[in-house]
Structures
1.
Amino acid sequence: MILIVDDRPENILPLKKILELHNFKTDSAESGEEALKKILKNSYSVIIMDVQMPGMDGFEVAEAISGFGKAKDTPIIFLSAVNKEKRFITKGYSSGGIDYLTKPVDPDILLLKVKTFNKLFEQQQELKTIQHSLQYEIDIRKKAQEELAGRMQELRFILESLPQVAFTIGVDGKIEFVNEHWFQLSEDATIFPESHPEDDFYNNWETHLKNGLEFTTEARLKHLDTQEYKYFLIKIIPILQNGSTIRWVGTFTDIHQQKMANELLEHKVELRTRELLVKNSELETTNHELQQFAWVVSHDLKEPLRKIQTFSHLIKDKYLKENPEAISYLNRSISSSARMSRLISDLLDYSRLSVKAHFQPTDLNLLLEDLLSDFDEIMLSKKAVIQLDKLPIIDTIPSQIRQVFQNLISNALKFSKEGMPPVITISSTIIAEKFVDAEVSEEGHFCRIVIEDNGIGFDEKFLDRIFVIFQRLNNLNTYEGTGIGLAIAKKIMDKHNGIISARSAENHGAQFILILPLVQEQVLTEIRTEN
């Protein structure tokens, strides 16, 4: 913007028109005082100043402007119709003007001078901007260098206080700083310690240096005092600034004692593993022998029991028809023999669970359909109702998981309320985690199966007892059984990496809850990971 200062409006108007025709923005003031006020508020690229004005003349205004920090460099062109003498022209230049024109003014010359001074002013402003920018950058860099120097000093204090050997390396790969511990391994602060011939790590380090990658390794370094090689953990990391590596910081940590202890431990573990393999082989042989023994014993025990039962029935039918008391005693003997036979069978089943078996995908719907046909008679006699949801296909040992369902359904039918038809509901959901109250999740890896009945139930304070072998909660005379069925179910569920639990209250039925993995390999992998 160009300021025109003249006490006569008729002089201002033509100048404004000329300048505005050439795309210059203009402003005007009709006195020196008004000009000073405007100069304080606005920024002007050129000031065209009339010399002869009432009050403050043009020279006085120019001298006043030269004292303003903001406007002192603004070009001033003096116009005068009277003072054409050399001394007035000289005064104009000395008071701060850069040109002195006498009236009448040639518009072309005035316009040329305005353009020139305006361009000079703009260039001057650009130079000032560049100067300020450069100064600002210099200040920032100076501050950054001071901060960097402070950080380097702080880093050195930290490295000096470390119990490890610590050092810094420049981007050229040369060592810049080492702490006092360095001299336990090297006499020269610019040379890396000597490493064992088998542990030459320097080539690997140089590759990491070129690629700007963190470097970590173990190596044996020679101790100057003892001349022995000791294990050290070597770690060298890049220090970045604005995405570029400015230096590297490294440490040598003495791990000799830990390494020796680990090697000793690994040796002991290896020996122990061999011992365990031998013991495991011996246990497998013993287990096989026990299986054979169990088969032989069960056969030898069942054979005399069968004879006792057979001859007892013959005696009862042929010789004791007229003796009710003797028949009662004999019936007890026959019942005890049958119970003994069931106990031997259940114990044999329990012992078989230690035999290895392979998991395979099992359709539980088909398994239960086949199993329920075995209960047709008792279900018909008790008018039992089975409500069965669609169950998933999961990895199981079919014969064993069948035994779990068989025991639980058998118990549900056995422990029904007198005079009330048993209602058994079997349902399933996919869950995220392996615990009883886990949330339902279609993406889960476990299946929760609930077998619910409306039978006599039990007090939950006995929950821990019902899965223990030979533990019974009911009178033997009222409900038959050996107390092994639920113990077998618990052992099978453990073998399947699953859970079995129950909820119940006396006379309010019972819920037995099975949690099974959908895929056994995934669960075994998770178990190994946790260990």
Note: Residues 474-479 have pLDDT under 50 and may be disordered.
2.
Amino acid sequence: MPRSLTFRAGLAMAGIVLLALTSMLGSIVIAETASGDAAAINQAGALRMQAYRLLATRARPDSAERLPDRLAELDRSLASPVITERLPDDPQHPLTRQYQAVAEQWREQLRPLMQTPAATAPADVAARVGDFVDQVDRLVGQLQREAESRIQLLRLFQGVILFLTLGLVFLAMYKLAAGVMPPLRDLLQVVERARHGDFSGRTRYTAGDELGLLSRTINQMNENLSQMYGRLEERVAAKTAELQRSNESLGLLYQAARRLNGAPPGDARYRHVLAQLAAVTGLGPITLCLAQADAEQAYLRLSTRAEDCPDFCRAPDCVPCLDDHDDTPSPWVYRVAVSEADRHYGVLLIQHPPHSPPEPWQRDLADTIAGLIATSISLAQGYAEQRRLALMDERAVIARELHDSLAQSLSYLKIQVARLQALVRAQAPAADTEAVLDELREGLNAAYRQLRELLSTFRLKMSGPGLEAALEETVREFTRRGELSIRLDYRLDHCPLSPNEQMHVLQIVREALSNVLHHARASRCEVHLATDTHGQVTVSVDDDGIGLGERTDQPGHYGTTIMRERAAGLNGRLEVFEPAPGGTTVRLHFTPQMRRDTPATTLPGDAE
């Protein structure tokens, strides 16, 4: 198995460091061995000078006493460690042999000759000294060659070390360029692709070093990331589909709630909701069967199929479908009861593929749609019941109005007719008969007027904009009917009234204006509507007419009885009085239903 990159890099660095240390140590050793060469050369060169000085001393008779000192000095110089320590141990070495030749010539020839000055001629002595000097020159030259050989050795050593170092560096660079850079570039390319979301890249370098381990790790990481990314995309797709399905379900529920709100059973909107349910769930056909409670046969069947009849239908025997305790008519039908508050309206039948029952979200959606259908049917029935009760209340109001006005007038007329009949039979004076006829005529006129007012009251409608617009129309109507200036001051914009409260207020104002128009002889009238600080509504009709006088309780005048009954219907009170400046004031006080059903809160408004 190949060595690791760390080991190879360390080995190259160790080799370079080792060569550097070897070069430095070799240089130090060679420099140390050559440190005495110069001194030895100088010392050997000094032998020549000493030999010539010794020759001069011998030739001068007056210097004979210094000759031994010169001889001893040359002996010391020749035997100096400066020279002897530079001699190799090999006796056959040229330097050793040359030194032995110089020493032997000195001891055996020149020194004995110097010690017997009279025995030898000066020319012979000078020739011997010249030979000795020549030997010394050769010794110095040999020392110089030895020194130069060490320098050459140092140069050769340094060159070899430098060559080895450069070779090792080039080898390391080659290994780096050939064995490290290509897989590293390949690895960087794979990492760059992974950084941009592409996990399909793989490296081909699988050696046993660190790069191989890193390559295998990145390959495995990319493989794992690819699998995780694939699973994540699948989960995102599933979540997206689930969110889309939830959005479609919410849209279906919203549309169903809007379409079915109060829609009567059998309306086309039911079929549309069933078609939407089939489209969202992917199930079907879907059939809605509606029946009365405990009935054995459905009175209405709606289906997403064209013929409105599913394959499993056994009509008119609808008990298997309607009864929750019985098994479903088919194993591939999911049944949902259409019921609300223990009231059963029918059943919703959803066919599904064999061996593939509806999923929980499909069942929940079907249950919710069934609940909306039940709520819609319940609301439709509630609206019908409210209309029926409203019709009964309206008939009761008509009966009360007829009883309190026209019935009393007719009863009064009946009594007058009986009196007239008695007078005719008794042949009473014409004056008495005329008086009864006048009362009959006046009663008929009053009854006719009451009938017209009742017809106007029963035909009265509340316009779309509300009470203020109806009051404005009423003011314009009564202004046209008489020479009367009427001003409306409406300050109930912040206080909404129920339709029943608006109708009673409008009728009381109309009755008060009718009394002003027919009896008050007024030229100006004001109608005020406002609230006080406690949220109580005050309706006031003021005129500048002749006042009440003694006619408050006379039948047929001012309609106070009817107005008081309407005030009682509002849980309020009605006041009819003459203010100090004159005229008549009709004032109604009541608390709106909305204020009675909620905690008391101070409302902005004018206190009239």
Note: Residues 494 and 557 are 35 Å apart (CA to CA).
3.
Amino acid sequence: MKKFKAAFLLLLIVAILQACSTANKATEKESGGESSSLADELIVLRASDATSLDPHFITDIPSANIVHGKVYETLVVFDKNRNLAPLLAKSWEPVDETTWVFELNEGIKFHDGADFNAEAVKATFDRLLDPATSSPQRDKLGMIEAVTVDGEYTVTMKLNQPYAGLLAILASQEGSILSPKAIQENAEGLKTHPVGTGPFIFNSWTSGQSISLTTNENYWGKKPSYSKLTFKIVPEDATRLAMVESGEAHISDQVPVTELDRIDNSSTMSLFRTEGLAVEYVGFNVTDSLLSDVKVRQAISYAIDREAIISGIYDNVGTLANSAMSPMVVGYSKNVKGYDYNVEQAKSLLKEAGIAEGTTVKLLTSDRKERINMAEVIQSQLKGIGLNVDIQVMEYGAYINEISSHKHQMFIGGWGNATGDGDYNQYNLFHTASQGPPGNHFFYSNPEVDKLIEAARGESDLDKRAGLYEEAMKIELDEAVYIPVRNYEHLAVYSNKVKNFWLDASNYTMIADVEITK
């Protein structure tokens, strides 16, 4: 009897343990297996707030970084090696030099329930290209004459001229496909409430504090491993770094170069570095009464020691730029040359221009630490040729507004080429049609340069195209429209709990495949 009771108790214990084990396995299955070991929220830190969340009105990479590839998707996409790959379009074909046919993926929904199809593509580009929309992106895609629907999932783009960079611009944030329902019902609302097909759905935007996205549970592609993505606005460099180091946040893609040793020596965070498509420069408002004289601009160009800025301010992160186009951009030329450091030549040109010693010029910069430091170095260097520099520091949004609205003299800027194509650089920075918000903050206009840029747009021979850009860039530098300083090297700091994070050459945070351990 005692043996029977003992055996019965043993069987009962085994049954209970098996039941517990089965329950645990069921719980693990319901929660996604290993997901219990993964964190549910990814926190990305930004130095400044977005200026808009509507791709047709976004003109800066930091704002685009919130929605591009996250809320919004494009017909085609750049892969990790900068090769073009299918996304919303499963295939495409150039019928002739000015006609492109795209076959679209089926069964995709926008976040508001609208269907993704050829009508949605047409609605997006019709809105962008409509002059009444007043989109600063319109000229970037102005070569598109018409978008026609040739079936529920077939769309044709007719161009008004051959355009070698079409697929590259369609892969950029300007090519984002918007919900036709949102366009029809509340197009203005897209500036603060984006609606796309991407892996993340917009949740909330608390101005100056944070932007929150949630994972799209019905996403047509690979769903992220976490359910919430939060962008927190933290202006202070040291605070952002401390938050990543302590585990309070996971990623910051705006890293002060003065903290590289600290990051390298940290046991909790790592540094990601990649060569970029962008160039940092000092720009001139060429219509300003003082700076409209090319001799004054040339004098300032000679007076700035660019190599000292790269070594002293940037600790040799990045390389000396010879033009506004980085070596990674299609159309770059090594034959274009910036101004050598020559104080005596600078003084001579100012004297020829009749500029009195002690004349003041205003230099505008955003509130990034390195740029403020650069402004102070420039202030010191220009004092050596008799110019006083009044440094103006603005929060990023206010800075963008200032240089877009023609209120500045000199400014420290950077052009983050989103496509890797020379047209995105030259047309947006130097063409007359791009003055103001689209990117020509120099307010430069030269009919000869316009013609060269337009000719390069339609040239399919890469060597001939590069030759056209080279000619245009030489004129821009001869006329001292800007001073090329540094080819970017993009930096990001991330927690060691984060896996599969990377930056692309445009400085977009690539986080869809990220996993965060607890």
Note: Confidence is low (pLDDT under 50) at residues 1-35.
